Amino acid sequence: MQNHGERQVHPALKELVVQASQALAHLDADRLEELALSCQALNRDLSLADKFEKKALQAQALEARGEMTVLAHVLEASRDNLNVLHRLREQSLGRLEYCENQVRGWVPTESGHGDN
Amino acid sequence: MGTISSAFAITTGALQADQAALSIVANNVANANTVGYTRENSNFQENSPVTIGGQSTGQGVTNTGATSVRDSVLTQRLDQQQQLAASSSSRLTALDSVQALFTPASGSTSSTAGDIGTDLTSFFTSFSTLEGNATSSSYRQNVLSTGKILAGDISSAAANLNAQSASLDQETTGVASQVNALTTSIAQLNQQIETTSPTGDAGTLEDQRQQDISQLSSLVGINQITTEKNGISITTTSGTELVAGSTTFPMTSGKVDGVTHFFVGTADVTTGLTSGGGQLGGYLTARDVDIPSAMNSLDQLAYSVSTQVNKLNNSGTDMNGATGTVAAPLNIFAQPTQVAGSAASMSVVMTDPNQIAAAALGAGTGDNSNALAMANLGKQGIVNNQNPSDYYSSFVSSLGSTVTQVQTENTAQNASVSQLQTQSNSLSSVSLDDSASSMTTLERSYEAATQVFSMIDKIIASVINLGEQTTVS
User: Fold this and answer.
1) Given a cut of 90, is residue B323 above it in pLDDT?
2) With contact defined as beta carbons under 8 Å apart, do B242 and B222 qualify?
3) How far apart are CA B402 and CA B395, in angstroms?
4) Is residue A114 part of a domain?
5) Does B397 score more than 50 pLDDT?
């Protein structure tokens, strides 16, 4: 049972960032959304933290800076991948529209089916 | 037309088309676990309607075969990212070995290259100790012993770096033969595809060619250009042709200044391959950039320490009352003639400890002022304006930064490859996932990760600024 005044212990910031990079690499959207919620909670708790907790978090923050660089790089690569895929989708939508036009042109001829 | 028999003909045609489509589906399922297999979609073509007396009658559909579901843009992006990931991965492996060389071995009793930092301190401290009793033979012996350990560790580090360079040289030759095998295979497949499917999808032949191209791009940086008759030309990223239709331009190797260089025809393509990516690019970057840079730092350290210590020892008086001359120098270390090669040849040449010139020129043999001057060399900016220990620390720290940077790049590139493979699999393998839903997952993941990043960034900025209060004047 949690003692009065004891706050929930968050995973180390470094671990959190490492997990975010891994989840993004494997496109684990659910895990990333959980991590985002966890960050929101951490941010909220920061305003309630005492001097010692803030000091501990400061040490964690310094430790996590290298992993943040990794996450930034993974985000950058993901954005580039998304751009490529968006362009592909636009291309395939263009193809779809072309197909629809073909169908539209084809329908009137078919209207005569069975009408003899 | 419009008779019962024509209705049967349409139905039979439709059944045959469905049957062909089912075969394609069955083929997809049978190849679900075949590496590199691309899912095929069946193509239905409307039979031309027959018009009699102004009345049009449909003739049903025919199955015209299958088209593989592939996307060259996505595949090329995947190949490109694989090139980068393979390059950083092989470079990282080489850098890890270099870094391990300069990492102190825990629990080891013998001194290694990882102890150079400690060796430098011990060597210059031995002069400080001698300064306390300039005539002590054991203190004099200690100067030579610590000098031998320092020289031994520096020269062994240089020998190890040379061995790593030679081993990478061998690796690159192996990669080049794999490149040649793959380009030959791609050229043969180009020829088969051009003959069998010059205008349409060549199915498994294209799958095989794509697999070869993917393998090739993890070995070497390439560009691919689609040519007429469904062919693909391959060039290195610097533009040298490797495959043009059914013709290959093999890569050959030869020694230039003792290291392996690569040629296509008569052109030396080594520099282009180094920056081009792939495994070969990574190995060449480690061999031609990282190791020479580490060796240069080590050479600089060995040259400066040997030269400065010898210079001072030649300017003092030894226990026998002698002073070094050009003809009979009192050198502690073998005197290097140039910076390059100084680390590999560093050694202690003095055998008699009495030849250590602890006394100043003209002073009595009990004087210690030259020993003090030599001890002070350890605190002076004698290596590129840094003292020897600081210079060595900077070198190790800079090596560590390079390793971290390449590690970061490699993690991000592998993550990117993993994402693209997921997208590519959803598009072209036998998967129940739809490419659209896969794309939505990427979008969701990216958005959530951006939130995580910006929130942690805010938290870090906020806690790092929580330190001591600053006074604003």
Assistant:
1) yes
2) yes
3) 11
4) no
5) yes
The neighbouring-strand residues paired with B360 are B316
The confidence score (pLDDT) of residue B60 equals 64
Confidence of residue A104 (pLDDT cuts 50, 70, 90): very low
**Alpha-carbon gap, residue B385 to B67, rounded angstroms:** 68
Place of tokens 């062919």: B231
Host H or E run for residue B447: helix B435-464
Compute how many other C-beta atoms are within 10 angstroms of the C-beta atom of residue B341.
15
Answer yes or no: is A112 within a domain. Answer: no
Q: How far away is chain B from the Cα of A32, in angstroms, using its nearest Cα?
A: 6
Domain that holds residue A14: 2-103
pLDDT 10s digits, B7-39: 666 666 666 656 655 565 555 555 555 655 555
Among B463, B465, B468, B469, the strongest candidate for a mutation testing the A interface, having the largest count of A CBs within 10 A, is B463
Report residue B246: phi and psi, to 5°: -95, 10
Q: Are the C-beta atoms of B189 and B212 separated by less than 8 Å?
A: yes
Chain B partners within 8 Å of A106 (Cβ): 46
Question: How close B472 comes to chain A (CA, Å)?
Answer: 22
Element (H, E) at B55: strand B55-57
Q: Are B41 and B83 in contact (CB under 8 A)?
A: no
Select the residue from A14, A24, A50, A54 to test the B interface by mutation, using most B Cβ atoms within 10 A: A24
Residue A113 in domain: no
Give B274-298 pLDDT, tens digit per residue.
Answer: 998 899 999 999 999 999 999 999 9
Give how far A94 is from chain B: nearest CA, Å.
15
Residue A116 has pLDDT above 60, yes or no: no
Tell me which residue of B415, B414, B424 sits closest to B449, measured CA to CA: B415
Neighbours of A62 (CB within 10 A): 14
Q: Which residues have CB under 8 Å from B472's CB, separation 6+?
A: none
Please give the Cα distance from A87 to B449 (Å, whole number).
22
Average pLDDT over residues B201-227: 86
Whole-number Cα distances in Å, A34 to B415, B416, B442? 20, 21, 16
- Among the partner-chain residues A16, A25, A28, the one whose CB lies closest to the CB of B456 is A16
Per DSSP, the residues of B342-379 read: TTTT--B----GGG---EETTS-TT--HHHHHHHHGGG
Give the total number of structural domains in chain A: 1
Report pLDDT for B472: 38
User: A99 in a domain, yes or no?
Assistant: yes
